[in-house]
Design a protein that fits this description.
globular, disordered C terminus, single chain
C-alpha cells in the first residue's frame, strides 16, 4: 500500500499540469515548455551525482528518455494547446489498456478479461468526468494526444523490462537529460528564440520542473520498479480527476451529476486493478 500511495502522488501532481500550462506559461510554445520542464532538472541531477550511463545504457537511456520525457512532453503540450483539456485527458486514459497489451509480448502476461474491463471502465469514467460534448476536436491535437499516450505506455513497459543499474534519482536524471536534449534543438528550429519570461511564467516553470517533473518522475519510476507495469498505468487515471478538482477549486468550475458518476467509475476501475494485482501476487495457502 505504501508503494501504491507514493506512486499515486505522481499522477496527482501531473493533474495540475493543464491549469499551469494554460494559466501560467507562455502561449503556443509546447516544445519550449517541454524542454524547460525536463532539461534543467536533468542536468542538475547529472552534476549532483556525477554518474553517466555505461555500455548499453547509453542507448537505453536515450530510448527511455525520448519515450517517457521527450516525445511524451512535446506531444502532451501540443495537444494541450490545440484541444480542450477534457479531450486530452480522455485520450490519455487509454494508456492502461496500451500498457496491458504491450506487457503481453514483453513479459508473457496475457491480459485477463477483468483487467481489460477495468481499463475500459477507466476510459469511460474519464470520458464522463472531463469530456465536454461541445469540445472542439482538432485532428492534429487528437493525434498528438493519442501518440503521447502510446509513447508513455511504451516507456512504462520498457522501464519495467530494463531494470535500472543505478540509484533511482540518477536513473531519473538520465531520462530527463536525454529527453531534454532531444527536445532542445527541435524547440529552437521550430519555435525560434524563447520569449522574455514574466514572473508568473517563472513560477509556473519552477512548479512544473521541481514538483511535476523531478519529484513526480522519481516516484513514478520507483513505482514501475516495485509494482506491475499495468498496475502503475492505472494509477495514471488519477491525473484527470485531480485536473477537474483543481479547476473546481481554482477556476470556479462546477461538477455535474455525470461528472460525479465518472469519478466513481474511475475509482471503481482503480480498485478492481488493485484487487486483481493482490489476487495475482498473494501465494496460495499450503495444504
Amino acid at each position: 500500500m505504501r508503494d501504491i500511495i507514493l506512486t499515486a502522488l505522481a499522477p496527482i501532481f501531473w493533474g495540475t499540469t493543464y491549469v499551469i500550462a494554460t494559466e501560467l506559461l507562455p502561449d503556443n510554445r509546447p516544445l519550449l515548455v517541454a524542454t524547460i520542464r525536463a532539461l534543467p532538472i536533468g542536468i542538475l541531477l547529472l552534476l549532483t551525482y556525477r554518474t553517466l550511463p555505461k555500455g548499453i545504457w547509453w542507448w537505453r537511456s536515450l530510448v527511455l528518455g525520448a519515450l517517457n520525457i521527450g516525445l511524451f512532453f512535446a506531444l502532451l503540450f501540443l495537444a494541450t494547446y490545440r484541444i480542450a483539456g477534457g479531450v486530452v485527458a480522455t485520450t490519455g486514459a487509454i494508456q492502461p489498456l496500451l500498457v496491458v497489451l504491450l506487457c503481453w509480448p514483453l513479459f508473457g502476461e496475457r491480459p485477463a478479461p477483468a483487467v481489460l474491463l477495468a481499463a475500459g471502465m477507466g476510459v469511460g469514467g474519464v470520458g464522463l468526468l472531463v469530456l465536454d460534448p461541445a469540445a472542439r476536436l482538432d485532428a492534429l491535437g487528437v493525434a498528438a494526444a493519442v501518440a503521447a499516450a502510446l509513447a508513455m505506455a511504451s516507456g512504462v513497459a520498457l522501464a519495467k523490462y530494463w531494470p535500472r543499474p543505478v540509484p533511482l534519482i540518477v536513473f531519473t536524471g538520465w531520462q530527463l537529460t536525454a529527453g531534454g536534449l532531444v527536445l532542445a534543438p527541435l524547440a529552437l528550429v521550430i519555435e525560434g528564440r524563447p520569449p522574455l519570461f514574466t514572473p508568473i511564467n517563472l513560477a509556473g516553470f519552477v512548479w512544473l520542473a521541481l514538483v511535476n517533473t523531478a519529484l513526480a518522475y522519481a516516484l513514478w519510476f520507483r513505482g514501475i520498479e516495485r509494482l506491475k507495469a499495468w498496475q502503475v498505468s492505472f494509477l495514471g487515471l488519477l491525473s484527470p480527476i485531480v485536473a477537474v478538482f483543481v479547476g473546481l477549486l481554482l477556476l470556479g468550475q462546477t461538477l455535474s451529476p455525470v461528472q460525479i458518476a465518472g469519478s466513481i467509475l474511475i475509482f471503481c476501475s482503480l480498485v478492481i486493478a488493485q484487487r486483481l494485482s493482490e489476487a495475482r501476487t498473494t501465494p496460495s495457502p499450503r495444504m
